[in-house]
From TrEMBL:
Pfam families with a match to the protein in the record: Rieske, Ring_hydroxyl_A
SUPFAM superfamilies: Bet v1-like (SSF55961), ISP domain (SSF50022)
Lineage of producing organism: Bacteria, Pseudomonadati, Pseudomonadota, Alphaproteobacteria, Acetobacterales
Gene Ontology molecular function: 2 iron, 2 sulfur cluster binding; dioxygenase activity; iron ion binding
Organism: Nguyenibacter vanlangensis
UniProt keyword annotations, A-Z: 2Fe-2S, Dioxygenase, Iron, Iron-sulfur, Metal-binding, Oxidoreductase
CDD domains: RHO_alpha_C_GbcA-like, Rieske_RO_Alpha_N
UniProt keyword annotation of Transcription regulation present: no
Protein's name according to its UniProt entry: Aromatic ring-hydroxylating dioxygenase subunit alpha
Ranges where the Rieske domain occurs: 45-151
Cofactor(s) in the UniProt record: Fe cation
Amino acid sequence: MTNYDIAAIRDLVARRRPRHALESAFYTSPEIFAADMDAIFNRHWLYVAVECEVPEPGDALAVDIGKSSVIIVRGDDAQVRAFHNVCRHRGARLLPPGPALVGNLVCPYHAWTYGLDGALKFAEHMGDGFDRACLGLRPVALRSMAGLLFVCLSDDPPDDIDDVVRQMEPYLAPHDLKNTRVAHTADLIEYGNWKLVLENNRECYHCMPNHPELTIPLFAYGFGFAPEELSAEDLAQAERYETLRRTSHDRWEAAGLPSRLIEHLDDRPTGFRTERLPLDGSGESQTMDTMAACRVPLGTLRDKAAGGLHFWTQPNAWHHFMGDHVVTFSVIPLDEGRTLVRTKWLVHKDAVEGRDYDLENLTSVWNATNRQDADLVEMTQRGVADPAYVPGPYSPHTEGLVEKFMEWYLARLKAHLG
Ligand code: FES
Ligand SMILES: [Fe+2]
């Protein structure tokens, strides 16, 4: 049962002009939002949490995704598992969103009690012939990618996740996510459709005019520019960056730090992109002075100027891995015009706030940047909902990766609609 008009959405997909923004309905229609949840968020691998958030047996985390909610829990055998947060009795939510410490998973309604492996252990007054074995919690597919936790709500998750894990683990492993902890989480509701949030993330066309903090560590021309339009000074900046990117890759790769670009944003179900990129100034971290924010280095990273490894996945995440801290971002659609962007800053688990890092210094670049991006998304949502809106063209120089996101999205939507 679907509550949207498949033929009408198919027509909209078919008449999309390549390399152009989408028609208004894609950003404003509750029906297309419902189709997006079915085709994209209920079927693909979603980044939701970090393994260090459930470090010990009994540590649990409930994450809401649309109408679904998933419990991630570490069992007594130290395995991390995921279950639907729905009681097998009459359906009550077992845990509220957020972290919890549990012995068992006890339903607040009639106290049905599940083990950390999901098995139903106790259910009173159910009489003879009641078969507990059939009423364990329903599992959710879960994969840890060097400590990043991905879930898939489908019973038939895309199996290319194994290949993504194989390619990504060497890039992520040096940062040793399993020995980190979350220093800070920020939940920001952006008043725009989830696709506007992703489109905005997949280009830095808007960085120069909007992100004075972010463009201290990041090179504004790192994701493309029209060479004929740059001033001599800007062109020199862009060339300096290209040289730095080349020489940094050579140096990092020689030191055993995988750095070169891998890009599969539009040619597979689990689209992704990674590359270690040099940072400006000292090259250490995404901070206001480009220096490491945390004194305790991560993992095996001893080159302080290890730049920033970025890792993007379709449809809902991007991350920046640095020598001293990691910032992860997940995108959870709330409705057609609202999207939750959850940001987590991770530091080494032994790092102490106030001694090894200052929280304000650690978070200031991305707190400012997220706020600016939220404003950009909101103003775009208002504009695309205006009857006068006509989709405009993407820049061939700076919005190629926005187009790849759109190609991926439309292909997945089309495959789902048949
Ligand atoms: S709904 Fe969970 S025990 Fe009744
Ligand atoms: Fe931005």
